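quick q for whoever's on today - can somebody do inverse folding on this one?? i tried earlier but teh output was garbage lol. tokens:
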């Protein structure tokens, strides 16, 4: 799962750029004849990147049954004509087109939830440091806190913020786990 959090966005960008660049150049130059090998490279390369992504995701989820299928897949390489005329060969291109927006959302949520929750956990410490070091009382005349917790002292409000941070932090781990399992299912749809 660490792979997912760290590399989902960079690999999504790499796959998208590769698929779009080589796919469009290959299709555009096909009438001239030189686009056919470029399109072939786009299809084979997109499939290889998809295999890399699938192996990394399956390694994180504990699934190991694809190793034999992958070895058999690489042993029997189809010819250029078979790849270019097969509809299934174009699925990896579609995968990388859809993967980029999904990886942006996944990366953003995987970073935003746990990091913001972790930062909010330190609200009482920040309150104490601001009070002791600068004489500034955080959460004292805060408009939102005056509505949400009108009877609480600023110190109690800082503890409430830390509690919210703990909830946010735990929700973040839940969201990351759900996104990881959704990514494994998403790869399996395009993996044939």
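ok took a stab at it. sequence:
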């Amino acid at each position: 799962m660490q792979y997912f959090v760290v590399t989902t966005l960079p690999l999504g960008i790499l796959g998208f750029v590769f698929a779009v660049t080589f796919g469009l150049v290959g299709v555009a130059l096909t009438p001239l004849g030189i686009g056919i090998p470029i399109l072939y490279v786009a299809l084979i390369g997109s499939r290889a990147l998809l295999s890399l992504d699938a192996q990394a995701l399956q390694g994180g989820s504990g699934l190991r049954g694809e190793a034999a299928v992958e070895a058999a897949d690489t042993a029997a390489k189809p010819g250029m004509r078979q790849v270019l005329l097969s509809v299934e060969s174009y699925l990896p291109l579609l995968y990388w087109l859809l993967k980029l927006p999904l990886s942006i959302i996944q990366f953003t949520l995987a970073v935003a939830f746990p990091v913001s929750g972790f930062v909010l956990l330190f609200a009482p410490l920040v309150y104490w440091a601001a009070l002791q070091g600068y004489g500034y009382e955080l959460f004292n005349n805060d408009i939102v806190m005056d509505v949400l917790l009108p009877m609480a002292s600023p110190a109690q409000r800082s503890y409430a913020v830390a509690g919210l941070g703990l909830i946010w932090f735990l929700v973040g781990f839940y969201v990351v786990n759900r996104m990881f399992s959704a990514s494994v299912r998403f790869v399996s749809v395009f993996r044939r």
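fwiw The helical segments are 2-29, 35-61, 66-75, 80-85, 91-120, 123-134, 143-148, 154-190. also Confidence is low (pLDDT under 50) at residues 61-66. so keep that in mind when u check it
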